[in-house]
Predict the structure.
Amino acid sequence: MIKANEIIKNYGSFKALKGISFQALNNKITALLGPNGAGKTTTLRVLSGYLTPDSGIIEYFGNASLDLKELKKIIGYVPENNPVYEDIYVSDYLEWIAKLYSLGEKDIKSAIEKCALYDVIDKKIGSLSKGYKQRVSLAKAIIFKPKILLLDEPTTGLDPNQANETRELIKELKEDRVVIISTHILSEAENLCDEIIIINKGEIAISGAKDDIVKKYSKNSYTLKFEGNIESNIFNFENLSNISSRTENGETLFNIEFSDETDMRKEILRFAKEKNISLIEFYRNRITLEEIFAKITRHNGGL
Protein backbone atom coordinates (compact mmCIF):
# COMPACT_ATOMS: atom_id res chain seq x y z
CA MET A 1 0.00 0.00 0.00
CA ILE A 2 1.13 3.53 -0.83
CA LYS A 3 -0.06 6.37 1.36
CA ALA A 4 0.73 9.93 0.31
CA ASN A 5 0.10 12.75 2.78
CA GLU A 6 0.15 16.48 1.93
CA ILE A 7 2.62 16.17 -0.97
CA ILE A 8 3.83 19.50 -2.34
CA LYS A 9 6.03 19.88 -5.41
CA ASN A 10 6.98 23.19 -7.00
CA TYR A 11 8.87 23.98 -10.19
CA GLY A 12 10.20 27.42 -9.32
CA SER A 13 7.14 29.58 -8.72
CA PHE A 14 4.79 27.04 -10.35
CA LYS A 15 2.93 24.87 -7.85
CA ALA A 16 2.61 21.48 -9.54
CA LEU A 17 1.27 19.58 -6.52
CA LYS A 18 -0.55 21.54 -3.82
CA GLY A 19 -0.56 19.25 -0.82
CA ILE A 20 -2.18 16.14 -2.29
CA SER A 21 -3.13 13.14 -0.15
CA PHE A 22 -4.30 9.73 -1.35
CA GLN A 23 -3.68 6.01 -1.03
CA ALA A 24 -3.22 3.14 -3.48
CA LEU A 25 -3.99 -0.41 -2.39
CA ASN A 26 -2.39 -3.77 -3.00
CA ASN A 27 -4.02 -6.05 -5.59
CA LYS A 28 -5.79 -3.01 -7.05
CA ILE A 29 -5.27 -0.92 -10.16
CA THR A 30 -5.53 2.77 -9.35
CA ALA A 31 -6.14 5.26 -12.16
CA LEU A 32 -4.65 8.72 -11.92
CA LEU A 33 -6.87 10.96 -14.05
CA GLY A 34 -6.79 14.65 -14.86
CA PRO A 35 -6.60 17.25 -17.63
CA ASN A 36 -3.27 17.98 -19.31
CA GLY A 37 -0.98 19.73 -16.86
CA ALA A 38 -2.99 18.61 -13.84
CA GLY A 39 0.00 16.99 -12.12
CA LYS A 40 -0.38 13.31 -13.06
CA THR A 41 3.16 12.75 -14.36
CA THR A 42 4.67 14.79 -11.53
CA THR A 43 2.80 12.59 -9.05
CA LEU A 44 4.20 9.41 -10.62
CA ARG A 45 7.72 10.86 -10.69
CA VAL A 46 7.49 11.77 -7.01
CA LEU A 47 6.16 8.31 -6.12
CA SER A 48 8.97 6.66 -8.08
CA GLY A 49 11.66 8.68 -6.31
CA TYR A 50 12.69 10.37 -9.56
CA LEU A 51 11.58 13.69 -8.05
CA THR A 52 11.81 14.68 -4.40
CA PRO A 53 8.74 16.44 -2.98
CA ASP A 54 9.26 19.82 -1.37
CA SER A 55 7.21 18.64 1.60
CA GLY A 56 4.90 15.83 2.63
CA ILE A 57 5.28 12.18 3.53
CA ILE A 58 4.95 9.04 1.39
CA GLU A 59 4.63 5.68 3.08
CA TYR A 60 5.42 2.52 1.13
CA PHE A 61 3.85 -0.41 2.96
CA GLY A 62 4.04 1.55 6.18
CA ASN A 63 7.65 2.73 5.72
CA ALA A 64 8.19 6.47 5.23
CA SER A 65 11.99 6.45 5.35
CA LEU A 66 13.02 4.59 2.19
CA ASP A 67 15.87 6.15 0.21
CA LEU A 68 16.16 6.11 -3.60
CA LYS A 69 18.25 2.92 -3.64
CA GLU A 70 15.61 1.11 -1.60
CA LEU A 71 12.77 2.50 -3.73
CA LYS A 72 14.38 1.12 -6.89
CA LYS A 73 14.17 -2.35 -5.38
CA ILE A 74 10.38 -2.21 -4.96
CA ILE A 75 9.17 0.09 -7.78
CA GLY A 76 8.88 -0.68 -11.47
CA TYR A 77 8.32 2.56 -13.41
CA VAL A 78 7.37 2.94 -17.08
CA PRO A 79 7.41 6.62 -18.14
CA GLU A 80 5.27 7.82 -21.03
CA ASN A 81 8.17 8.40 -23.42
CA ASN A 82 9.12 4.71 -23.23
CA PRO A 83 12.93 5.01 -22.82
CA VAL A 84 14.60 1.91 -24.25
CA TYR A 85 17.80 1.44 -26.24
CA GLU A 86 16.87 1.18 -29.91
CA ASP A 87 20.08 -0.48 -31.16
CA ILE A 88 20.15 -3.40 -28.73
CA TYR A 89 18.46 -6.77 -29.14
CA VAL A 90 15.53 -7.53 -26.85
CA SER A 91 17.29 -10.55 -25.39
CA ASP A 92 20.50 -8.61 -24.68
CA TYR A 93 18.56 -5.73 -23.15
CA LEU A 94 16.67 -7.95 -20.71
CA GLU A 95 19.86 -9.86 -19.83
CA TRP A 96 21.55 -6.53 -19.06
CA ILE A 97 18.62 -5.41 -16.86
CA ALA A 98 18.67 -8.78 -15.09
CA LYS A 99 22.35 -8.40 -14.28
CA LEU A 100 21.71 -4.99 -12.73
CA TYR A 101 19.39 -6.70 -10.25
CA SER A 102 21.56 -9.83 -9.86
CA LEU A 103 18.83 -11.95 -11.46
CA GLY A 104 19.10 -15.16 -13.44
CA GLU A 105 17.73 -16.84 -16.55
CA LYS A 106 14.55 -17.91 -14.77
CA ASP A 107 13.62 -14.28 -14.07
CA ILE A 108 14.32 -13.28 -17.68
CA LYS A 109 12.14 -16.09 -19.01
CA SER A 110 9.34 -15.15 -16.62
CA ALA A 111 9.32 -11.53 -17.85
CA ILE A 112 9.44 -12.65 -21.49
CA GLU A 113 6.53 -15.02 -20.95
CA LYS A 114 4.35 -12.54 -19.06
CA CYS A 115 4.91 -9.83 -21.67
CA ALA A 116 4.62 -12.23 -24.65
CA LEU A 117 7.98 -11.31 -26.18
CA TYR A 118 9.03 -14.68 -27.59
CA ASP A 119 8.32 -13.63 -31.19
CA VAL A 120 10.65 -10.60 -31.01
CA ILE A 121 13.31 -11.76 -28.57
CA ASP A 122 15.99 -11.85 -31.33
CA LYS A 123 15.05 -8.51 -32.87
CA LYS A 124 16.48 -5.07 -32.24
CA ILE A 125 14.22 -2.89 -30.13
CA GLY A 126 14.31 -0.13 -32.74
CA SER A 127 12.68 -2.43 -35.31
CA LEU A 128 9.69 -3.21 -33.10
CA SER A 129 6.20 -1.76 -33.27
CA LYS A 130 5.22 0.68 -30.54
CA GLY A 131 3.13 -2.05 -28.94
CA TYR A 132 6.10 -4.39 -28.63
CA LYS A 133 8.34 -1.57 -27.39
CA GLN A 134 5.79 -0.96 -24.66
CA ARG A 135 5.93 -4.66 -23.78
CA VAL A 136 9.72 -4.49 -23.55
CA SER A 137 9.41 -1.56 -21.14
CA LEU A 138 6.90 -3.51 -19.06
CA ALA A 139 9.20 -6.54 -19.04
CA LYS A 140 12.02 -4.32 -17.78
CA ALA A 141 9.73 -2.94 -15.06
CA ILE A 142 8.52 -6.31 -13.77
CA ILE A 143 11.61 -8.48 -14.25
CA PHE A 144 12.68 -8.01 -10.61
CA LYS A 145 9.12 -8.60 -9.33
CA PRO A 146 8.52 -5.14 -7.84
CA LYS A 147 5.83 -4.60 -5.24
CA ILE A 148 4.76 -1.38 -6.96
CA LEU A 149 4.17 -0.72 -10.67
CA LEU A 150 3.82 2.86 -11.96
CA LEU A 151 2.67 3.25 -15.58
CA ASP A 152 2.42 6.64 -17.29
CA GLU A 153 -0.04 6.55 -20.23
CA PRO A 154 0.66 2.85 -20.95
CA THR A 155 -1.55 2.58 -24.06
CA THR A 156 -1.01 5.98 -25.70
CA GLY A 157 -0.24 5.60 -29.41
CA LEU A 158 -1.11 1.90 -29.55
CA ASP A 159 -3.60 0.51 -32.04
CA PRO A 160 -6.82 -0.97 -30.58
CA ASN A 161 -5.50 -4.54 -30.54
CA GLN A 162 -2.20 -3.56 -28.94
CA ALA A 163 -4.02 -1.42 -26.37
CA ASN A 164 -6.37 -4.27 -25.42
CA GLU A 165 -3.46 -6.70 -25.08
CA THR A 166 -1.60 -4.23 -22.86
CA ARG A 167 -4.67 -3.73 -20.65
CA GLU A 168 -5.08 -7.47 -20.21
CA LEU A 169 -1.43 -7.73 -19.24
CA ILE A 170 -1.81 -4.93 -16.67
CA LYS A 171 -4.79 -6.76 -15.15
CA GLU A 172 -2.63 -9.84 -14.69
CA LEU A 173 0.21 -7.82 -13.17
CA LYS A 174 -1.89 -6.38 -10.34
CA GLU A 175 -1.73 -9.61 -8.33
CA ASP A 176 0.27 -9.00 -5.12
CA ARG A 177 1.17 -5.49 -6.34
CA VAL A 178 0.18 -1.87 -6.10
CA VAL A 179 -0.46 -0.70 -9.67
CA ILE A 180 -0.99 2.97 -10.52
CA ILE A 181 -1.60 4.10 -14.08
CA SER A 182 -1.88 7.59 -15.44
CA THR A 183 -4.23 7.79 -18.42
CA HIS A 184 -6.31 10.31 -20.33
CA ILE A 185 -8.44 7.52 -21.83
CA LEU A 186 -11.43 7.50 -19.49
CA SER A 187 -13.02 4.38 -20.96
CA GLU A 188 -9.74 2.60 -20.23
CA ALA A 189 -9.85 3.65 -16.59
CA GLU A 190 -13.50 2.63 -16.36
CA ASN A 191 -12.86 -0.87 -17.69
CA LEU A 192 -9.45 -1.49 -16.15
CA CYS A 193 -9.20 0.18 -12.77
CA ASP A 194 -10.54 -0.51 -9.30
CA GLU A 195 -9.69 2.83 -7.71
CA ILE A 196 -9.84 6.36 -9.11
CA ILE A 197 -7.93 9.53 -8.28
CA ILE A 198 -8.92 12.65 -10.20
CA ILE A 199 -6.34 15.41 -9.95
CA ASN A 200 -6.92 18.93 -11.25
CA LYS A 201 -4.51 21.88 -11.11
CA GLY A 202 -2.32 20.06 -8.63
CA GLU A 203 -5.12 19.19 -6.22
CA ILE A 204 -7.10 16.00 -5.59
CA ALA A 205 -10.67 16.60 -6.77
CA ILE A 206 -11.91 13.16 -5.70
CA SER A 207 -10.49 9.74 -4.88
CA GLY A 208 -11.83 6.36 -3.86
CA ALA A 209 -13.22 3.08 -5.18
CA LYS A 210 -14.48 3.46 -8.75
CA ASP A 211 -17.86 1.89 -7.96
CA ASP A 212 -18.37 4.20 -4.97
CA ILE A 213 -17.58 7.29 -7.05
CA VAL A 214 -19.94 6.20 -9.83
CA LYS A 215 -22.67 5.53 -7.26
CA LYS A 216 -22.15 8.94 -5.67
CA TYR A 217 -22.75 10.75 -8.96
CA SER A 218 -25.45 8.43 -10.31
CA LYS A 219 -29.18 9.12 -10.32
CA ASN A 220 -31.85 6.44 -10.20
CA SER A 221 -33.08 7.02 -13.74
CA TYR A 222 -34.33 4.84 -16.58
CA THR A 223 -34.89 5.15 -20.29
CA LEU A 224 -38.11 3.60 -21.63
CA LYS A 225 -39.32 3.23 -25.19
CA PHE A 226 -43.01 2.57 -25.87
CA GLU A 227 -44.88 1.84 -29.06
CA GLY A 228 -47.25 4.65 -30.04
CA ASN A 229 -47.91 8.07 -28.56
CA ILE A 230 -47.91 7.84 -24.75
CA GLU A 231 -48.70 10.78 -22.46
CA SER A 232 -46.44 11.60 -19.52
CA ASN A 233 -49.33 11.72 -17.05
CA ILE A 234 -49.85 7.98 -17.40
CA PHE A 235 -47.05 7.40 -14.86
CA ASN A 236 -48.27 7.21 -11.25
CA PHE A 237 -45.16 6.15 -9.33
CA GLU A 238 -45.09 7.83 -5.90
CA ASN A 239 -41.31 8.28 -5.93
CA LEU A 240 -41.17 9.75 -9.45
CA SER A 241 -39.13 12.98 -9.30
CA ASN A 242 -38.53 13.96 -12.92
CA ILE A 243 -39.73 12.96 -16.37
CA SER A 244 -39.00 13.99 -19.95
CA SER A 245 -40.20 12.54 -23.23
CA ARG A 246 -40.13 12.81 -26.99
CA THR A 247 -42.07 11.09 -29.75
CA GLU A 248 -40.59 10.04 -33.06
CA ASN A 249 -41.30 7.42 -35.71
CA GLY A 250 -44.44 6.25 -33.91
CA GLU A 251 -42.60 5.60 -30.66
CA THR A 252 -42.38 7.52 -27.37
CA LEU A 253 -39.08 7.70 -25.52
CA PHE A 254 -39.15 8.58 -21.80
CA ASN A 255 -36.39 9.40 -19.37
CA ILE A 256 -37.73 9.02 -15.84
CA GLU A 257 -35.95 9.69 -12.57
CA PHE A 258 -36.85 8.55 -9.06
CA SER A 259 -36.22 10.27 -5.74
CA ASP A 260 -34.75 7.23 -3.98
CA GLU A 261 -32.40 4.38 -4.88
CA THR A 262 -35.04 1.65 -5.15
CA ASP A 263 -34.49 -0.61 -8.16
CA MET A 264 -37.63 0.13 -10.22
CA ARG A 265 -37.13 -2.32 -13.08
CA LYS A 266 -39.72 -4.87 -11.89
CA GLU A 267 -42.16 -2.07 -11.10
CA ILE A 268 -41.74 -0.65 -14.61
CA LEU A 269 -42.48 -4.03 -16.18
CA ARG A 270 -45.50 -4.49 -13.92
CA PHE A 271 -46.71 -0.98 -14.80
CA ALA A 272 -46.49 -1.60 -18.56
CA LYS A 273 -48.42 -4.86 -18.21
CA GLU A 274 -51.17 -3.28 -16.08
CA LYS A 275 -51.57 -0.35 -18.49
CA ASN A 276 -51.50 -2.73 -21.46
CA ILE A 277 -48.96 -0.61 -23.30
CA SER A 278 -46.21 -2.00 -25.50
CA LEU A 279 -42.82 -1.50 -23.86
CA ILE A 280 -40.29 -2.00 -26.66
CA GLU A 281 -37.18 -1.62 -24.53
CA PHE A 282 -35.94 -0.07 -21.31
CA TYR A 283 -32.74 0.14 -19.29
CA ARG A 284 -31.36 1.70 -16.16
CA ASN A 285 -29.15 4.66 -16.97
CA ARG A 286 -25.58 4.60 -15.73
CA ILE A 287 -23.37 7.65 -15.53
CA THR A 288 -20.00 7.19 -17.22
CA LEU A 289 -16.63 8.06 -15.78
CA GLU A 290 -16.25 10.55 -18.62
CA GLU A 291 -19.36 12.42 -17.44
CA ILE A 292 -18.13 12.39 -13.84
CA PHE A 293 -14.69 13.60 -14.92
CA ALA A 294 -16.19 16.48 -16.94
CA LYS A 295 -18.45 17.49 -14.08
CA ILE A 296 -15.66 17.47 -11.50
CA THR A 297 -12.95 19.19 -13.55
CA ARG A 298 -15.30 21.86 -14.90
CA HIS A 299 -16.56 22.54 -11.40
CA ASN A 300 -12.97 22.93 -10.25
CA GLY A 301 -12.01 25.20 -13.12
CA GLY A 302 -10.48 22.61 -15.43
CA LEU A 303 -11.03 21.87 -19.09
The chain has two domains: 2-86+138-216, 219-285. The mean pLDDT is 91. The two ends are 31 Å apart (CA to CA).
